[in-house]
């Protein structure tokens, strides 16, 4: 049976603060229910949220690396530039 955890208890299972988990619950990013004025989640819902965050971060990092490789132009020396594109005597 999956028991409900208060967000303060849920902080023992992750590196997020109670305030941050509450924010994500209010935003609908973390599955949680509100009983009275307190938010509750389950271990499974918390694990699902953490897995989603990790997947997102991994995806964004790999896209960033791909963009960085695409934007980086091969660098050539000043001498090689002049030999290829201009007066090669200036390269000396």
Description of the molecule:
With 92 residues, this protein is mainly alpha-helical. It has one domain (5-91). 55% of the residues lie in helices and 10% in strands. The chain is built from 4 helices and 3 strands; from the N terminus they run βααββαα. Strands 1-3-2 form a 3-stranded antiparallel beta sheet. The model is unreliable at 87-92 (pLDDT under 50).
Number of helices: 4
Sheet-strand content, in percent, reads: 5-15%
* Structural class by SSE content: mainly alpha
Order of helices and strands: EHHEEHH
How many beta-strand segments?
3
Model regions low in confidence, pLDDT < 50 over at least 5 residues: 87-92
Strand neighbour order, sheet with most strands? 1-3-2
Average pLDDT works out at 81
Tell me the major beta sheet.
3 strands, antiparallel
Radius of gyration: 26 Å
- Taken from the alpha-carbon principal axes, the silhouette is elongated
Main attributes?
single chain; 92 residues; mainly alpha; three-stranded antiparallel sheet; 3 strands; elongated; disordered C terminus
How do the strands and helices of this protein lay out in sequence?
Elements (H helix, E strand, L loop, with lengths): L4 E2 H4 L7 H10 L5 E3 L2 E4 L1 H29 L6 H8 L7
């Amino acid at each position: 049976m999956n028991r409900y955890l208060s967000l303060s208890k849920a902080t023992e299972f992750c590196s997020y603060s109670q305030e941050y988990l509450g924010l994500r619950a209010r935003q609908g990013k973390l599955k949680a229910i509100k009983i009275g004025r307190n938010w509750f989640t389950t271990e499974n819902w918390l694990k699902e949220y953490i897995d989603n965050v990790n997947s997102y971060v991994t995806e964004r990092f790999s896209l960033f690396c791909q963009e960085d490789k695409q934007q980086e132009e091969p660098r050539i020396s000043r001498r090689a530039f002049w030999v290829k594109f201009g007066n090669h005597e200036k390269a000396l």
